[in-house]
Amino acid sequence: MSKQLYKVFDEVEFKAQLLAKYWNNFYTEICEHLPDTYQPEMQELSIKLDEALSNLVDQLRNPTLTLATTGTTSSGKSTLVNLLCGAEIVPVAVSEMSAGAVTIEYSKEKSLIIHETPGALWECGEWRGITEDRIYQRLYQVMISYIENREKQPNLACPQSTILYPFRLVKESQLELPQGTRVKILDLPGLAYVGDRGNADVIKQCREALCIVTYNSAETDAHKVKSLLQEVVQQVKDLGGSPARMLFTLNRIDVFRADKNWPETENRFVENAKRDIKNELTEQLKEYTEDIEKLQVVKLSTWPALLALQIQNNDDIYSAEACKKADNNFNGLIDEDILEVLPRNVQKWSRHDRNRVAEALWQESYAEEFQQHLKQHINQHFPQLVIPQAIERFNVAAANAVAEWAVQTTTAILSSSEEHYQQECEKISHMRSSLDLFLQDSDANLRRPFEKIDAKFKQVIEKKSEDDLVFYLQKTLKELQDVEPYNELGEKLYPLYGWSRELSRGIKQVLESVAESLEKGQTLVKNPNLKKADDSQVQLLESNLKRLINLGYTGSAARDGEIREARTDEDKKNLELLNQALNDLSKHLNLVMKDILKQISNQEIERMYQAVVELFNCHLSHLEKGANNNAPNIIIRFPDSQLIRVEKELSFSLSFESGFSITEGNWEEESRIFWHWLWLVPKYEARCSDNATIPSTENLLKNWDSQVKLAEPDLVKQIASWLLEQIDCLKKEVHKNQNDILDRYQARLDKAHQEITLDYEKQKNVWQPMERKAQELAEEFGVLGKLLKNED
What is the Cβ-side half-sphere exposure of residue 129, based on CA atoms within 13 angstroms? Predict the structure, then answer.
């Protein structure tokens, strides 16, 4: 979007103000030809339009820009927040410091609020006029207290803090926002803490936020890189909405400066990282394939960039401290010409020296590029988060009613004569029948795939079909997407059948991590999905894995499984202990999986809700176009916000069983006795043993995945039934909305027939132009919502 951001908002406001003038002019002109009985309704429309316009203007002049920041493990997210603020106010540490969400709102005055939360073990309250250092220290103590106590008190609510601060993002970055824009930065918790209820409430705010996702470029271990990519995907899912509104930042990019051919290795890393991030997102968020192709991925080194700002601080002591950190850690970013003339004692650096170092750090850390990318990102996506919703509210509150009244009233008056009245009544009756038929056909087309799925479920349950229901669901929905108008949806319906794959993927990733731990003889439970589970349960799982490894369930025994025959009492005891440990593994995995699958299910259900909204939006657009073709001059509108009521009732319930059993068996023990001098002759005696087939980790994995498959038919049935209920609700809302519009037109026709007596031939020269003006007015009101689309 090349246009300055505030001008986009100004253009919408100007157009809305113009619409009010069009209405006022139309009002004045039509009043000259209408009886006084029309005045109350017209005045009510004018009042509602004025109120709606006032609200629209307020929303356009005083929008809220929220930047939500999150990131992969050790990605420098907190340093990025400090960079956006221009000061070190959010705690930074080598270990994960994010505990609870911190909201930073722009304000000329500084203050800190630590909100009261259930069971808080830290001081809560408000501190005004607080310094940056005190903000940092108070937040640090709160976070440390929470992190140290959350394992002892699993129900301890995470801290929630608000900082009021004149951050740099607004003061110096020249964002060109509308003058009254409220700006806030939402510092989201790390992935390890997304399960906290308080954090979940904050994350919901991100649905209407622009997001910055930081990625740790310094990680080189292939296993950990794969884990980071999974973290990126999980965070995108947690944030919700399109990845298009997320700016992906490759932080710590300065790590490549240590390479001999750093520009080449850095560029290769950036291209590979872009590709890998896009591939991972496309693989798991197919509904956003087009958006993912256009993803913005930028380079940044947040720490040297922040130091560049701190070096320029007027406080010499503060500046010198930053100079020392820069000299110790980032000489590689400073040109040799500058380094050669710098005194080794940073205290002796002149202001000119410091400015040169700061400028070098700022440029070489890609801070300026990042700032420009962020500005472009905000310019491109911020209007889409604010304006369409504001226009929709304006239309629902008044604009649709004004357009409808103008066209229906002029059309009714032209049809009010005795000669035309009966014809128009018959026409309305015909329109009702025609529209009902159109709605029934459209509704049947939308229902058909889900009815087929429902019927197929019954066949499978009755053993009349062996079809895979998830595959059948996918096949049926793809058939729907081949039919107009649903062919415009692309992959938007993927979540309605992709949930199965995501559940299996989540289970597989966790179990592969567990299997790897057992096979390698060390606990490597590092999969991002495990961070969705309760910490105490994960710790029990890790302890259980150590027990199994100590009992010999590791290496080839874990990898290949084995048939074990315990003959001695000690072997039997060890086998019993192994049996108990494996059964405990089942129990602990059940508890961990319950948490993980709940989180994954919630993610997938949210995606399904959004898919249904996309489906219904497409359906309503088709209905509105078809309805107006069947009933011209009626102005039928099907506003999404009024008609789409997706009831969030879906819930997945999954449970698992695993383990193995010990059975009694017989074995023959060879004994040797002397017979015929020196010859040894074997003799066999029957003995009892405990026998068990110890499963391989691969079989354990297959067992769990197969149990998911067993649950799929019920889940498909639940989804199909739920969708049919939603379609029924939508149909009722649409039918009622349509009939209300036709009823209003009938009432306006009756009123005109009763109150307006005109010689049609003499007066049509007045009302036909008035009808055309009403149509033009309705068209102008319809253009408002298309302004942003034209920009795209």
Answer: 0
Contact 146, 122 (CB under 8 A): yes
Task: Tell me if 507 sits within 8 A of 597, measured CB to CB.
Answer: yes
- Which burial class, exposed, middle or buried, applies to 146 when counting CB atoms under 10 A from its CB (0-12, 13-18, 19+)? buried
CA dihedral 380→386→387→391, nearest 10 degrees, is 160
User: Which positions ≥6 away from 728 have C-beta within 8 Å?
Assistant: none
Contact 151, 538 (CB under 8 A): no
Tell the burial category of 414 from Cβ atoms under 10 Å away from its Cβ (0-12, 13-18, 19+): buried
pLDDT of the residue at 54: 97
- C-alpha dist (Å) from residue 382 to 57, 174, 181, 209, 210: 16, 15, 11, 8, 7
In total, the chain counts a number of residues equal to 792
What three-state secondary structure class fits 522? coil
Torsion angle of C-alpha atoms 489, 494, 495, 501, degrees rounded to 10:
-170
pLDDT computed for residue 663 by the predictor:
52
Give the whole-angstrom CA distance, residue 100 versus residue 104: 13
> How far is residue 727's CA from residue 36's CA, in Å, rounded to a whole number?
44
Per-run averaged pLDDT (10 residues), the chain, 792 residues: 78 95 96 92 97 97 93 87 94 63 92 92 95 94 86 79 93 81 85 48 74 91 83 84 92 92 94 94 93 93 96 92 94 91 91 95 96 93 93 96 97 89 95 96 94 92 89 93 92 94 86 85 74 81 89 85 77 82 82 85 90 96 95 94 85 66 47 39 45 73 74 90 94 96 96 78 81 94 76 52
Q: How many CA atoms lie within 13 A of 274 on its CB side?
A: 14
Q: Quickly tell me which residue has 């004004």 as its tokens.
A: 402
Decide the pairing of beta strands 296-299 and 246-251.
Answer: parallel
Are 246 and 236 spatial neighbours (Cβ–Cβ below 8 Å)? yes
Tell me how far apart the alpha carbons of residues 511 and 541 are, in angstroms, rounded to a whole number. Answer: 12
d(CA 186, CA 498): 30
Q: How far apart are CA 244 and CA 380, in angstroms?
A: 10
Taking the C-alpha atoms of residue 30 and residue 767, their distance in angstroms, rounded to an integer, is 9
The DSSP letter of residue 131 is -
Q: Is the peptide bond before 485 cis (omega within 30 degrees of 0)?
A: yes
606 with 240: CB under 8 angstroms? Answer: yes
Q: How many CB atoms lie within 10 A of CB 409?
A: 24
Return the pLDDT at 760. 58
Q: Using alpha carbons, select from 701, 707, 695 the residue that is nearest to residue 578.
A: 695
> What 3-state DSSP class applies to 72?
coil
Q: Which residues lie across from 127 on neighbouring strands?
A: 112
Distance CA 498, CA 502 (A): 6
Tell me the CA end-to-end span of the chain in Å, nearest whole number.
7
Please tell me the pTM assigned to this model. 0.88
Q: CA torsion 702→707→709→714, rounded to 10°?
A: -170
Task: Report d(CA 278, CA 270) in Å as an integer.
Answer: 12
DSSP bridge partners of 680: 674
Contact, 583 vs 657, CB < 8 A?
no
- Measured at the alpha carbon of residue 288, what is the angle toward residues 205 and 482, in degrees to the nearest 5? 130
The residue written with tokens 């039934």 in the block is 721
- Cβ pair 486, 615 in contact under 8 A: yes
* β-pair partners for 164: 105, 111
- Answer whether 418's CB lies under 8 Å from 87's CB: no
Output the CA–CA distances (angstroms, integers) from residue 696 to 351, 518, 667, 785, in the order listed: 67, 10, 24, 60
